[in-house]
């Protein structure tokens, strides 16, 4: 399931992923919220707090995630992935090299630092 993180800055589409993540989560929540932020701000600042294992994402969810990335390719500004999974952190940091915009991983205890970075492009001290 994906939910919106309510305390996110206005210019950040921020989501919390828990349990099983489905195609419907993307269709009903993520994609409309991302479109709203791009329409409002002309760019996408995106945060995903990953509180589930990657194998909990259904195939439909992965496909929607890929489509989200491709559809909004020119709008990506800053993306933070918040997780304690080292493999996901490493992948996120490598992904930053091939995608437009900045991609950065943060450990779970630094959620508010990640939100601040998404909003401003700067980090606060942890």
Automatic annotation (TrEMBL):
Membrane-spanning intervals of the chain: none
InterPro entries for this protein: SpoIIAA-like, SpoIIAA-like_sf, STAS_dom_sf
Superkingdom of origin: Bacteria
Leader sequence residues: none
Protein name (record): STAS/SEC14 domain-containing protein
Organism: Chryseobacterium phosphatilyticum
């Amino acid at each position: 399931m994906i939910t919106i993180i309510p305390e996110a800055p206005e210019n950040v589409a921020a989501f919390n992923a828990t349990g099983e993540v489905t195609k419907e989560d993307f269709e009903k929540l993520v994609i409309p919220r991302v479109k709203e932020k791009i329409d409002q701000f002309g760019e996408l600042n995106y945060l995903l707090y990953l509180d589930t294992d990657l194998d909990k994402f259904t195939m439909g969810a992965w496909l929607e995630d890929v489509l989200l990335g491709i559809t909004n390719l020119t709008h990506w500004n800053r993306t933070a992935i918040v997780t304690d999974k080292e493999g996901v952190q490493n992948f996120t940091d490598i992904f930053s090299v091939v995608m437009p915009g900045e991609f950065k991983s943060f450990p779970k205890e630094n959620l508010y630092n990640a939100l601040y970075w998404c909003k401003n492009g700067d980090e606060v001290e942890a």
